[in-house]
């Protein structure tokens, strides 16, 4: 589809993105009053319906407080924001924020290591077999892009084996962002060099070796972080 033919984002979505950036960048700081709704709608050239849709999304994210008959106020996103804020912080004004990305990759390494240890303790025989199969598929993947899809499937299976709902939901919440920017988040660049670590992790989980699983996945995630940083230069 040509750029000319690409569907335009709804007005409410564009306004939401503009207001969100204003809050996250500090243009509207914690405790600040937002302009009246009619003024915001007029300045943005949108209907009140579109404005209210945008404001509702910000309120649901915990970033503004809307009270009937009172001024709308900005909340401190560091205190009230959730995982859904990360994606917007990571891609500020369309460009990748290297500081936020570094934090994300650091947290990813820590999370996946503990996820592997739990999986080694709690996995079922079927889940262990699934991890071994996925590790083998990654080694045989035709290219890095195919390996990246398998990588996500491997960690989804690891989360299921860990039997921890929070880890499962975290992966669900980042899936869309992960694949939308897969080329920049090149965690499986030169995937055949990484393949032995998937195999080592799968074997450790199968053998219920918590320490071995944690070490293999931590080393894998650290190397993946290097791949991303190399790609970004």
Give an overview in words:
Helix 2 (37-44) packs across helix 3 and helix 6 packs parallel to helix 10 (191-206). The chain is mainly alpha-helical and 233 residues long. The two termini are 30 Å apart. It has helices at 11-25, 37-44, 48-60, 77-80, 83-90, 98-122, 125-140, 144-162, 165-180, 191-206, 210-232; strands spanning 64-65, 73-74, 91-92, 95-96. It contains eleven helices and four strands; from the N terminus they run H-H-H-E-E-H-H-E-E-H-H-H-H-H-H. Helix content is 70%, strand content 3%. The strands form two sheets. A two-stranded antiparallel ribbon has the order 1-2. Strands 3-4 form a two-stranded antiparallel ribbon. It has two domains: 11-81, Orthogonal Bundle (Arc Repressor Mutant, subunit A), CATH 1.10.10; 87-232, Four Helix Bundle (Hemerythrin (Met), subunit A).
The strand count comes to 4
Helix content: 55-70%
Share of β-strand residues: under 5%
Major β-sheet, in short? 2 strands, antiparallel
- Shape field: elongated
Q: Kindly report the CATH topology of the largest domain.
A: Four Helix Bundle (Hemerythrin (Met), subunit A)
CATH class of the largest domain: Mainly Alpha
User: How many structural domains?
Assistant: 2
Q: Helices and strands, in N-to-C order?
A: HHHEEHHEEHHHHHH
CATH architecture of the largest domain: Up-down Bundle
Q: For the residues shown, what is the average pLDDT?
A: 89
Structural class designation: mainly alpha
If you compute it from the alpha carbons, what radius of gyration comes out, rounded to the nearest whole angstrom?
21 Å
Corresponding CATH superfamily of the largest domain: GntR ligand-binding domain-like
Low-pLDDT stretches are 1-6
Biggest sheet strand order reads: 1-2
Number of helices, counting only DSSP H or I runs of 4 residues or more: 11
State the end-to-end CA separation.
Answer: 30 Å
